[in-house]
Design brief:
By secondary structure, the protein is mostly helical. The protein has a domain of about 110 residues: NADH Oxidase (3-Layer(aba) Sandwich), CATH 3.40.109. It has eight helices and two strands. Strands 1-2 form a two-stranded antiparallel sheet. The protein binds flavin mononucleotide (FMN).
Length: about 160
């Protein structure tokens, strides 16, 4: 039952993206680029209740490849992705966050010491680079027909403990 409510709240969330959603009625054909890409952007949403339907390896490989293709500042590539999909690893991760029952979790991290540091103000690009990778992952998962979401509200030190 709680899964059902969670799904309904997903739909409510999609409905809440009102800023541009009524444009859908007005735009019959996108003028530039491919309609398919815009459809992916439109159909992505944050899923808060996953089924345990297995994710095919071919889809996972495609998603990871999309992450690999992401740009990074000065091409430093400071981002790492940990694929959490074994029952054992998922169980350990779920002690930190339930991950809404997702059967595969991609943990994205970055190494500050490998990232570009902007000279003018010393800002490190690692987190920006990681955000770009994550966006590639989410959009490609959506394109592959896999619901997904970004979880930021967790304790990183606990994740490091759970997945050393
Ligand atoms: C950087 C970032 C962190 C997020 N962290 C969480 C999170 O910890 N928990 C959560 O339920 N949703 C999280 N979200 C999902 C956002 O709440 C969601 O993207 C936003 O409400 C818009 O809804 P939509 O993704 O369905 O379009 C996060 C999204 C982003 C971009």
């Amino acid at each position: 039952m709680s899964k059902l409510f969670s799904r309904l709240s997903d739909f409510a969330r999609i409905g809440n993206r009102a800023a541009f959603s009524d444009m859908d009625q007005k735009i019959t054909k996108y003028k530039y680029g491919s309609d398919a890409f815009m459809r992916i952007l439109e159909s992505r949403y944050s899923c808060h209740s996953f089924t345990d339907y297995p994710v095919p390896d071919s889809k996972l490989q495609m998603i990871l490849e999309a992450g690999r293709l992401a740009p990074s500042a000065k091409n430093c590539q400071p981002v790492r992705i940990w694929v959490v999909k074994s029952e054992e690893a998922l169980a350990r991760l779920r002690t930190v966050h339930p991950c809404y029952g997702a059967p595969v979790v991609l943990v994205v991290g970055c190494r500050n010491e490998e990232a570009w540091v902007r000279e003018s103000d010393g800002v490190n690009s690692a987190k920006t680079d990681a955000a770009i990778v994550l966006t590639h992952l989410m959009l490609t998962a959506t394109d592959a027909g896999l619901a997904n979401m970004w979880i930021w509200d967790f304790d990183p030190s606990k994740v490091r403990q759970a997945l050393p």
